[in-house]
Design brief:
alpha+beta, three-stranded mixed sheet, four-stranded antiparallel sheet
Length: 330
């Protein structure tokens, strides 16, 4: 049987009788799969805690965010989950050994799973108003591309050329074990911190945000960061991804029973910049959101005419600030 990639966004088809990843019809007794794995729910006592959904007014218990998957998909996800659990529980030194493609699959699995629940909630609300859910063609295409790549869990798939994503892992010192998960659907941004590490990722930038910050991340290397430094890095990556003026495209072909995904380098017309103008005030708003745990306000972050404060680089020599010199709680 020839390979076919499934696209639920074309018809906006999100029901509990159809496998969200492959489009297979499911038997009535098929149990949906929890988006957040049991090992995370147990480790952080999250089962009955609630997750804020996209519409902000709806909160759903972590354990109730579920997606319908076919048995072959569940089997592949269980294999992936076992790899991730082993490395994440061991910490930074093991996580950096995981192939980026596996990290990408795991992050895309979480993001797509939460998105599925968001879209289901939106559909139900609109149905009560005799209306239907609509997404822009741009968002449909963006979600479709990530969904196609997630199908690499069950479909033979090669990623050729540039990696479609930017993924960076940092060693972070925390005073206690926590699960700090954030995603941003429109631009497919992801961040997670737990144990002794933090991960920030742009899942559809074709590596451009990573290139923009290569010098900084190389300078950091495996140096241990303060949590406020990691959150600042997240702010930089997320805001830079927002400023991209070109959108990721891919050549997708199916040959010899294998899907080939080739990332096309991002480009602009008339030699215009790949990143839009950096606005300190807008960046400061992003930074203030990530620095909420420390109570820092915009007035403290930006003191005109100075640029936004930074806990990452020393103002005097551009060296990475030692965590012992940061007067903020862990």
């Amino acid at each position: 049987m020839p390979i076919q990639l499934y696209n639920p966004f074309q018809e906006m088809h999100f029901d509990m009788q159809t496998c969200f990843l492959t489009g297979q019809s499911l038997s009535p007794d098929t149990e949906p799969t929890a988006v957040f794995p049991e090992w995370i729910l147990n480790r952080y006592n999250l089962s009955d805690q609630t997750f804020k959904m996209l519409d902000e007014g709806t909160r759903v218990p972590y354990k109730n965010i579920k997606v319908p998957y076919a048995p072959n998909v569940v089997k592949a996800m269980n294999v992936l989950e076992a790899e991730i659990e082993k490395a994440f529980c061991a910490g930074y030194d093991e996580i950096v050994k995981i192939p980026e493609e596996r990290l990408f699959q795991w992050m895309a699995k979480l993001m797509m799973g939460v998105l599925f629940e968001d879209l289901r909630i939106a559909q139900k609300k609109l149905a009560t108003q005799n209306d239907s859910l609509r997404l822009s063609n741009f968002l449909k295409a963006r979600f479709q591309k990530l969904h196609w790549m997630l199908q690499s869990l069950v479909v033979p798939m090669d990623f050729k050329g540039l990696k479609p994503w930017t993924i960076r892992i940092f060693k972070v010192k925390y005073s206690k074990d926590l699960f700090n998960y954030k995603d941003e659907t429109n631009n497919l941004n992801f961040s997670l911190s737990m144990n002794d590490f933090g991960i920030v990722a742009c899942l559809q930038d074709n590596g451009e945000v990573g290139k923009k910050y290569d010098e900084l991340t190389t300078k950091i290397g495996s140096q241990t960061l303060h949590p406020i430094q990691f959150e600042e890095l997240c702010s930089k990556f997320i805001y830079a991804n927002y400023l991209l003026t070109s959108y990721a495209t891919y050549n997708v072909s199916i040959e010899d029973e294998k899907v080939s995904v080739e990332s096309i380098p991002l480009s602009t017309q008339n030699n215009s910049p790949l990143f839009d103008f950096w606005d300190d005030n807008m960046y400061g708003q992003v930074l203030a959101n990530y620095w909420k745990p420390w109570g820092l306000t915009m007035k403290e972050i930006i003191m005109f005419p100075n640029p936004p404060i930074s806990y990452i680089e020393n103002d005097f020599n551009d060296e990475i600030t030692d965590i012992e010199k940061i007067n903020q709680p862990y």
